[in-house]
């Protein structure tokens, strides 16, 4: 089963915002963003997918349906989690400590190991900071629910305003997006 390495992930702006996986699936089917479920939580793109995501290259050479082990674009909607999780990958743009400006290269591991994610401390200056408010420059996010689009490279495509506004209406929060490389 093909697993994409490059992901475009849509997520609410506020990490606390959540709706159920079922609500997301219902909405995205209704607007034909997704079609049949291939395997658990993973869907083929719907008939109106290409009207709701804008590819920025002049002629995107993308495969839109599964074909053996070949790369193709799909949509994954994981279960909503009750706690806030941190999502990042190999392309993480490291933030700087708000106190001493040291680059926080260990941030992903620090968040994974922390009991309380909103109060971490800097190895260099020992001051505490809250990573929930950090700007990850579209390379990571905190949240409870997400819509993953598999096989989209960094800045290759963007969700259009119409799609984001449907998601905003469902959750009463604006939605953002990030590019994550597993
Ligand atoms: Zn520091």
Kindly state the percentage of residues in helix: 10-25%
Strand content: 25-35%
**What structural class do you assign from the helix and strand content?**
alpha+beta
What strand order characterises the main sheet? 2-3-5-10-1-12
Counting DSSP H or I runs of 4 or more residues, the number of helices is: 3
| The number of domains | 2
The main β sheet shows up as: 6 strands, antiparallel
Distance between the terminal alpha carbons, to the nearest Å?
16 Å
- Shape verdict: globular
Number of strands: 12
Short description:
The chain is of the alpha+beta class and 182 residues long. It has three helices and twelve strands, in the order βαβββββαβββββαβ. The protein folds into two domains: 6-83 and 137-181, no CATH class; 94-133, no CATH class.
Can you walk me through this structure?
The protein is α+β, with helices and mostly antiparallel strands and 182 residues long. The protein folds into two domains: 6-83 and 137-181, no CATH class; 94-133, no CATH class. 15% of the residues lie in helices and 27% in strands. The chain has three helices and twelve strands. The chain has helices at 21-30, 107-113, 161-171; strands spanning 6-12, 34-39, 42-45, 53-55, 74-76, 85-88, 120-121, 128-129, 140-143, 147-150, 157-159, 175-181. The strands form four sheets. It has a six-stranded antiparallel β-sheet with strand order 2-3-5-10-1-12. It has a two-stranded antiparallel ribbon with strand order 4-11. A hairpin with a 2-residue loop joins strand 2 (34-39) and strand 3 (42-45). The two termini are 16 Å apart. The model has no long low-confidence stretch (mean pLDDT 95). Bound molecules: zinc ion (ZN). The site of zinc ion (ZN) has 8 residues, from loops.
């Amino acid at each position: 089963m093909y697993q994409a390495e490059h992901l475009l992930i849509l997520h609410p702006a506020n990490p606390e915002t959540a709706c159920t996986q079922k609500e997301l699936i219902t909405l995205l089917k209704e607007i034909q963003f997704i079609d049949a479920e291939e395997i658990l939580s993973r869907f083929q793109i719907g008939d109106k997918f290409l009207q709701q995501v804008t590819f920025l290259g002049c002629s995107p050479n993308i495969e839109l349906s599964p074909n053996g082990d070949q790369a193709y674009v799909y949509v994954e909607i994981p279960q909503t989690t009750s706690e806030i999780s941190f999502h990042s990958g190999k392309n993480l743009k490291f933030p700087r400590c708000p106190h001493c400006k040291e680059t926080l290269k260990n941030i992903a591991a620090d968040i994974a190991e922390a009991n309380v994610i909103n109060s971490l401390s800097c190895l260099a200056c020992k001051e505490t900071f809250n990573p929930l408010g950090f700007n990850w420059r579209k390379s990571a996010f905190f949240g409870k629910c997400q819509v993953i689009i598999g096989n989209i490279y960094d800045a290759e495509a963007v969700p259009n305003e119409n799609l984001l506004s449907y998601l905003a209406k469902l959750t009463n929060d604006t939605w953002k997006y990030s590019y994550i490389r597993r």
